[in-house]
Design goal:
Length: about 140
């Protein structure tokens, strides 16, 4: 199903997905190029060894790849419903992962930034997507 031009919820969903992609890229590029700088800028625990540096770079690359997977949800959210649902589920899962890491795995509270960021994007995307689907199906 292709979204109609006047479905404001679909447009808002696309804006939030684009914002999420921009945030992912803004976090991933410094993680790849300067992981120690990113850790100090976000008040994260310092990079202690070369191996930790390598892992942070790898996570940056994976974050870039994951954000590229959101592009079909950005272009046609109602046409690619599985991708849109996966984008929402991945945001919510990442938010829960970071929250669990701080709460139960004794990681630094600085990682709550990621929990709140991913979780709020996931909740906003889910709300807008459900509203967009309702609007499209109630019209037909």
């Amino acid at each position: 199903m292709i979204a109609r031009a006047d479905n404001i919820y679909t447009r808002a969903f696309q804006v939030v997905v684009a914002l999420g992609i921009a945030v992912d890229v803004a976090l991933a590029i410094p993680a790849v190029l300067a992981p120690a700088w990113l850790a100090s800028a976000l008040y994260l625990p310092p990079v202690l060894s070369f191996k930790a540096d390598l892992w942070q770079r790898g996570v940056g690359v994976l974050r870039l790849l994951l954000s590229s997977m959101y592009i079909p949800a950005l272009v046609g959210p109602l046409r690619d419903r599985y991708v849109s649902g996966a984008a929402i589920a991945s945001r919510l899962a990442l938010g829960l992962f970071w929250y669990w890491s701080v709460t139960f795995a004794d990681y630094s509270r600085a990682y709550l930034l990621f929990a709140y960021l991913e979780g709020s994007l996931g909740v906003i995307q889910a709300t807008l997507y459900v509203a967009a689907l309702r609007r499209e199906y109630l019209r037909s």
